[in-house]
Amino acid sequence: MRKNLNVIAAYSIMMVLILMVGIFQSWNIALSIFNLCLISAVMTMGANIQWGYAGLINFGIMGYTALGGLAAVLISVDPVQEAWRAGGFDILMSLWLIVVMVLVIRFVLKRFEKSKIRTYSIAAIIISGILLIRFSAEPGIEAIEAVDPAKTGFLGGFGLPIIFSWIVGALFAGGLAFIVGKVALGLRADYLAIATLLISEIVIAIIKHEDWLTRGVKNVIGLKRPAPYEVDLQTTDWFIKLVEKFNSGKLSVIENLADRQAALNQLVIEGSSVFVKLCYSGLFLVVVIILLILTQKALYSPWGRMMRAIRDNEEAANAMGKNVVKQHLLIFILGSAIVGIAGAMLVTQDGLFTPGSYRPMRYTFLIWVMVIVGGSGNNFGAILGGFVVWFLWIEAAPISLFLINFFTAGIPETNALKTHLIESVPYFRFLLMGLGLLFIMRYRPKGILPEKIEIK
Amino acid sequence: MDFINAIILLLNYIFIPALTYGSQLALGAIFVTLIYGILRFANFATGDMMSFGTMATILFTWYFQSLGVSLGVLPTALLAIPFGIIFMIMYMLLIDKFVFKYYRYQKSPPVQFAMVSIGVMFVTQAVVRIIIGPADRRFFDGEKFIIKAREFKEMTGLNEGLALKSTQVITIFVTIVLVSLLFWFLNRTKTGKSMKAYSDNEDLALLSGIDPKKIVLVTWIIAGILATIGGALYGLDKSFKPFTYFNNMLPIFAAAIVGGIGNPFGAFLGGYVIAFSEILLTYAYKKFFMYVLPASMEPNSLIQLLSTDYKFAVSFSILVIVLIYRPSGIFKGKVL
After folding, report:
1. Looking at the 3D structure of chain A, how many domains does it have?
2. Does the beta-carbon distance from B115 to A428 stay under 8 Å?
3. Contact between residue B61 and residue B77 where contact means Cβ atoms under 8 Å apart
4. In terms of Cα–Cα distance, which of B89, B95, B76, B85 is closest to B56?
5. Are A169 and A69 a contacting pair, CB within 8 Å?
6. For residues A220 and A349, is the Cβ–Cβ distance under 8 A?
7. CATH number of the domain that B191 lies in?
8. Per the CB < 8 Å rule, is A184 touching B99?
């Protein structure tokens, strides 16, 4: 108990902060912060597995998040029959061509010795394959995108409950990580960072511009929900009764029956959105707890010890007969898959998929700040980092507004400097994040909750 | 006649834009490569540092405009660039003193430097946005075109017009001058040579009495010059928006690595490699083939290898391929 005191203290402070937002701002805001904190926590756990356990640097988190989001779309949207009729055959043909191409390349790689001719012939196969696929898919893509472009214009998905996409998102992200890992993991750390960053940009470019699959920048809205809809709740009897029971003290003060009904209606509307957010919180909490248990188990298992050995001294681990390349690939896939889950959760919560919103600042670098600030190598630290940083990211604007007003209290409202500062309040969050990261890196390089390994 | 038309077409839509864009990338890439070669880290704040320098230039441009100072046909920004450079260098030295110096003395691994540079990136982004705001700004004034497309058509009687913007000429001219000066400095002067020596082998350089403080100072000064001029030229040619500058960091990295990181000449050429491949692969060649081929073989599709949406993806793919097959870059930089 005593040795975990700092963990407990840190988490209690965090919870108190969120409760304070609930009391002083509103429960809606507090819960939406809490939900996004949970999603961020899943992302940081993924990044922490890669960086904290194995020392692999992955700046491609944005790409895996987006793939998870894509999974949510592909799983939950109903298939667009018309689009399938119009261009489904061409798309399937192209898919088949891709499979054939990969098989041919594999065959060439297996069959022939490594030589210049082999390299060039593989390049030739890839280029001619891409051209062939482009020409065979083009009529299909055009036909699909022409099907009611304002509403659909894409193939749609499988029409399954969106919750399945959390697993499928992990599979998608893991699959991409397999390819990226095979290609890039041999690189030195900072090159790996650049390579993964650029690959994630390529993924986003594809998601943004392949409209037949993702609707691109036209966005997919109105995804199905795992939680009830507010509108339905507001007309459900048991929910109204529940709200009445919760607020009976407040309501009984009001004498007039009509006023009382109006107040109740208002409370029901507020309550319904809080209730929906609570449902999401429950779902996300389950995911976070499951992942936390699994990652903690992994950390203290022989496998975790091996990963730390590889991280701390690759050559020694290699000399002990550990397959460093294979383990790096494995951990890269695992971490990315967890990020993929978070991506699917994010789209599930928002109910919409907006490829244009995936930007490296928000989805890669911010997550890294979370991991570093929280404490790399320590799962509790990583989760705490997700909470703290997201909380500050959201609350930075109100806090800095308060500070600006406080320090410029003597200056009249019309002062140019003051109005300029107040207008640029949203950008103080970048400043806060940057300074936070720099200070932590300098004075507490292991993070708020540093890694500590006890041998049991 | 058709053949000349085809050539003018390529000049107008591929060659000149690619040369301009490539020059802007090249300046940034030399900046990245110098920092990497001498201070030994991948600077993720590259794009934002360039936007800081551009911001300072814009502020001075506005100031000069308000004073009524102008260069006539040339943009006022050219006058403001030296002042922008001074601000940029001061900012860089400040950051170096408070942030990077500590890690340099600690001899931290490059990854830690990269993380720290991300912190610097956040801070710089905030500073730029707080001072000048996130909006898209144009600060070009003076004569816009040297040759207008219509005038060219009338002059030569050709079907295709050739437009030459003054920013394009300025960009290419300034790049040539700056890069020649830089290479002269690196190869001919004592300080330049000692910088090369320091980059090659730090211990040996220190042993032979090279002052590391001076090397670092000179590196930041050169970096400041390159970042500000590169950023300002890009802003003059297109427009200034902090977010675009952040995004430009990626093709700049690509150019530096493709050219062989740590090798300034490689970075210079890398900029053009990236720019030309981006534009060559995403240009629709339909019109070109209409001129070159006889009428019976006229193409009916656009003959575009990739849609322009994938412009960035092209450079990143080149980078990934280079990283896998030749990680030291086309022109042999530091061996990894």
Report:
1. 2
2. no
3. yes
4. B85
5. yes
6. no
7. 1.10.3470
8. no
pTM assigned to the model? 0.91
Rounded CA-CA distance A195/A185 in Å is: 10
Residues A108 and A64 in one domain: no
Interface predicted TM-score of the whole assembly (ipTM), two decimals = 0.89
- The range of the structural domain enclosing residue B205 comes to 2-325
Q: Which residue from A119, A199, A206 is facing B320, i.e. has the nearest CB?
A: A199
Tokens found for residue B116 = 């720290």
Residue A450 in any domain: the answer is no
Per-residue exposure over B133-150, b if at least 16 CB sit within 10 Å of its own CB, e if not = beeebebbbbeeeeebee
CB contacts, 8 Å: A437 with chain B: 115-116, 118-119, 122
Q: How far, in Å, CA of B169 to CA of B172, rounded? A: 5
**For B136-187, what is each residue's pLDDT tens digit?**
988 888 888 888 888 888 888 777 788 888 999 999 999 999 999 999 999 9
For residue A241, pLDDT beyond 50:
yes
Residue B26 backbone zone (phi > 0: left; psi -120 to 50: alpha; other: beta): alpha
Indicate yes or no: CB of B121 within 8 angstroms of CB of A365.
Answer: yes
Structure confidence by residue, pLDDT tens digits, B258-311: 888 888 889 999 999 999 999 988 888 888 888 877 777 777 677 777 777 788
Whether B124 maps to a domain, the answer reads: yes
pLDDT above 90: percentage of residues in chain B: 51
Per the listing, tokens 């050709």 go with B158
Nearest-CA distance A440 → chain B (Å): 10
- Chain A hits for B120, CB-CB cut-off 8 Å, are 434, 438
Question: A–B: how many Cβ contacts below 8 A?
Answer: 123
Q: Are residues A174 and A139 in the same domain?
A: no
CB contact under 8 A, A424 and B336: no
Residues A253 and A162 in one domain: yes
Per the structure block, which two tokens stand in for B56?
Answer: 């300072």
One domain, residues A90 and A188: no
Q: Quote the CA–CA distance of A346 and A325 in Å, as a whole number.
A: 32
Q: Which of A201, A205, A442 is closest, CB to CB, to B309? A: A205
Contact B118 A421 (CB under 8 A): no
Q: What is the CA radius of gyration of chain B?
A: 21
What tokens appear for A53 in the block?
């356990």
- Phi and psi dihedrals of B153, rounded to 5? -60, -45
| B332 lies in some domain | no
